[in-house]
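Dear H.,

Thanks for agreeing to be a second pair of eyes. The structure we're designing against is below in token form, covering all 748 positions.
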């Protein structure tokens, strides 16, 4: 009895053989009848399938409802046949099979005579057909009342029905003994037959519809759908593997196993069925196995390490036809995925000078495949972890880190591994090292041209820039210290001033954006970067770079200091601009009352190096209207101070006398000097002298020298090389009288 109920329990858990039989393909079969539209019109059906073996046709049937099945065991079934050569004749006779007798299960006495007492399957069939009800046995003790008792009886009948169907699938003789199978041997080969089955029931009590089907004359041939598909196996945890293969028309399976090439032994005494996963299945086996069960037959087995396994599977269908064994193509071996037990760190002791740290640990179990330890380090208790040691011997329980001081404060973790590559690890333990080592300084600090307004070489030789909206972009190379926290950026308006932090807190980026006030007179802004570690040790600063600020502030104005004039000349003195970036000064002249200023002279700022004043001399044409002069300063960004330093002058012009003069000029190629000589004939009451004027490359004429009466030559030793020079002379005759200019000569 114990074996019977073990089989019974397996059946209840694994599913319905009736559903499997109903899905079995049958050659040219047709069922008749309709489904009820409501409970008041409920019809109970008997499903039937058939298989032609050439010399016989086997019929199998199964009522869907447990009550109809139980009635069939008492009253039996009538099977009728129409077929052969007269199948489609109008007067074809309908033959009642089994000699016209109802087909019913064997009696209990017949089962006992026909089967041995050791036949557990036959015993289970007898128990399901004729055994006493468990509900009746418990009737005196149940507390659920009449309705509860009825429900349990109905539930028990369904379980008995299911068990009989499964036994009938497994063994043809048990299907025959259970009244669910008939073999028609009185047939002609190649002929088609139509069969119908009718349960013998009182139609006034229950409405049961029989079934009809047409069986082809072709004999059954086993196809791939009736063979066991390819067998797969996967390890699912440390000790279990799942064996699975695709579903088809087979309903139950038996598995055999060979270990290390040994003999084949049975894995299961009761058949394995395909199981449709539900929520309970997902909770027990997990989502992945539940998905696998949807389209596969699944069997989970416990396997041991160190052995090779091969499995083979055979299956049967609703007609108790068994397939051949299908054997796994390759042997399977479990993989060791169980890590060794974790070590426990007992102490981390730094040396007095914080240069080393000694670890001590313990491990409660040294497994047979234990391989050894590796000591690791991280600046965070969460990792990442870097190896400190090589693989240490399994018997090692201490290790001294001689680079602990250089690493600084952090955490140790000890990993234990086995020969299969599985690893466990200890909890993280702090090393208690005092961090006194500063990180390395950032290098290659530079700016980029993402926001370029103007690119100007800096005093340090850099070519960096700043945008007109005040945004600056800096970047630098990374510092590779393990304990790096980040970087801080500092700036100042003068290289030797106190620097102010621009970043406000450490940044982990390798770039930085800054916004500065562009309305400043300082031409550069200066930056450097420092690195900060986890213990807030600061590196030395990086190299300081200068970034040119955009010049939007005009230079200071020039102020008039002094002015005097002669009959033919004007002498004006202005102050220089106070701005350091002035590149040039421009002097303008116009007649008073005119709106048009005329460029008179450009004075490079470099010519005034070391001076505080600008001295200007001009000889305007004689005019009865006043002249006005002003001056403008321009800086390197061509920003203007505006025109200031206005002055009004009158030019009466000198009194002139007609004097014939002939001027000659010749360049000395060896000395690069210009030799001048002249001739004139003048006799006057007053002594006279002469003035020599020179213009360079088309510029304004300026007096370069004077000569006394009776002198007729002059050497210009200051002649600029590579320039075109023009000369003329004028005689000063006294009493404000001046000669007309001589002829003009030109040399290169």
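And this is the sequence the design step returned. I haven't edited it by hand at all.
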């Amino acid at each position: 009895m114990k074996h019977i109920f073990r089989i019974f329990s397996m059946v209840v858990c694994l599913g319905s053989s009736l559903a499997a039989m109903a899905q079995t393909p049958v050659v040219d079969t047709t069922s008749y009848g309709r489904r009820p539209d409501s409970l008041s019109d409920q019809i109970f059906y008997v499903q039937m399938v058939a298989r032609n073996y050439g010399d016989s046709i086997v019929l199998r049937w199964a009522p869907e409802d447990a009550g109809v099945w139980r009635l069939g065991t008492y009253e039996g079934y009538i099977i009728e046949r129409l077929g052969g050569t007269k199948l489609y004749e109008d007067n074809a006779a309908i033959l009642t099979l089994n000699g016209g007798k109802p087909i019913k299960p064997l009696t209990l006495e017949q089962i006992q005579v026909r089967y041995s007492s050791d036949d557990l399957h036959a015993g289970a069939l007898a128990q399901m057909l004729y055994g006493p009800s468990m509900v009746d046995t418990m009737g005196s003790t149940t507390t659920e009342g009449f309705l509860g008792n009825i429900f349990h009886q109905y539930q028990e009948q369904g379980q008995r029905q299911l068990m009989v169907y499964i036994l009938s699938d497994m063994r043809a003789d048990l299907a025959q003994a259970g009244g669910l199978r008939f073999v028609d041997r009185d047939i002609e080969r190649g002929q088609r037959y139509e069969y119908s089955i009718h349960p013998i029931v009182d139609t006034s009590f229950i409405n049961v519809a029989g079934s009809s089907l047409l069986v082809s004359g072709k004999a059954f041939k086993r196809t791939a759908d009736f063979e066991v598909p390819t067998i797969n196996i996967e390890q699912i945890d440390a000790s279990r593997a799942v064996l699975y293969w695709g579903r088809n028309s087979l309903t139950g399976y038996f598995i055999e196993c060979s270990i290390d090439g040994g003999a084949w032994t049975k894995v299961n005494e009761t058949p394995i069925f395909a199981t449709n996963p539900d929520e309970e299945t997902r909770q027990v086996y997990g989502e992945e196995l539940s998905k696998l069960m949807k389209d596969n037959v699944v069997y989970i087995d416990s396997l041991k390490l160190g052995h090779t396994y091969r499995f083979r599977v055979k299956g049967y269908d609703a007609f108790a036809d068994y397939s051949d064994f299908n054997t796994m193509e390759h042997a399977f071996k479990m993989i060791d995925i169980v890590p060794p037990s974790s070590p426990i760190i007992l102490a981390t002791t730094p040396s007095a000078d914080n240069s080393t740290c000694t670890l001590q640990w313990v491990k409660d179990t040294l497994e047979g495949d234990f391989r050894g330890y590796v000591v690791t380090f991280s600046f965070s208790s969460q990792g990442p972890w870097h190896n400190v040691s090589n693989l240490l011997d399994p018997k090692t329980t201490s290790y001294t880190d001689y680079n602990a001081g250089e690493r600084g404060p952090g955490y140790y973790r000890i990993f234990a591994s086995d020969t299969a590559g599985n690893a466990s690890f200890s909890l993280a333990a702090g090393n208690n090292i005092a961090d006194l080592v500063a990180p390395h300084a950032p290098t290659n600090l530079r700016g980029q041209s993402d926001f370029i307004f103007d690119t100007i070489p800096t005093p340090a030789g850099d070519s960096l820039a700043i945008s007109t909206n005040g945004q600056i972009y800096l970047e630098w190379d990374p510092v590779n210290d393990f304990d790096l926290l980040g970087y801080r950026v500092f700036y100042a308006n003068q290289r030797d001033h106190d620097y102010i932090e621009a970043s406000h807190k450490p940044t982990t980026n390798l770039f930085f954006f800054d916004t500065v006030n562009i309305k400043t007179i300082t031409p550069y802004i200066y930056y450097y970067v420092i690195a900060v570690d986890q213990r807030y040790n600061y590196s030395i600063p990086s190299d300081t770079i200068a970034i040119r600020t955009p010049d939007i502030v005009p230079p200071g104005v020039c102020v008039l200091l002094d002015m005097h004039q002669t009959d033919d000349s004007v002498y004006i003195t202005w102050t220089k601009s106070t701005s350091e970036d002035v590149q040039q000064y421009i002097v303008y002249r116009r007649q008073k009352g005119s709106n048009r200023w005329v460029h008179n002279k450009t004075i490079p700022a470099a010519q005034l190096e070391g001076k505080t004043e600008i001295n200007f001399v001009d000889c305007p044409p004689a005019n009865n209207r006043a002249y006005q002069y002003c001056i403008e300063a321009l800086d390197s960004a061509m920003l203007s101070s505006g025109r200031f330093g206005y002055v009004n002058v009158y030019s009466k012009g000198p009194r002139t006398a007609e004097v014939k003069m002939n001027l000659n000029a010749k360049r000395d190629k060896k000395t690069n000097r210009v030799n001048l000589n002249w001739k004139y004939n003048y006799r006057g009451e007053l002594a006279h002298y002469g003035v020599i004027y020179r213009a360079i490359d088309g510029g304004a004429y300026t007096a370069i020298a004077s000569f006394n009466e009776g002198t007729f030559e002059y050497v210009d030793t200051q002649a600029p090389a590579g320039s075109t020079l023009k000369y003329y002379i004028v005689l000063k005759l006294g009493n404000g009288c001046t000669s007309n200019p001589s002829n003009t000569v030109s040399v290169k």
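Two observations from my side: The first helix runs from residue 2 to 14. The chain is about 15% helix and 40% strand.

Warmly,
E.
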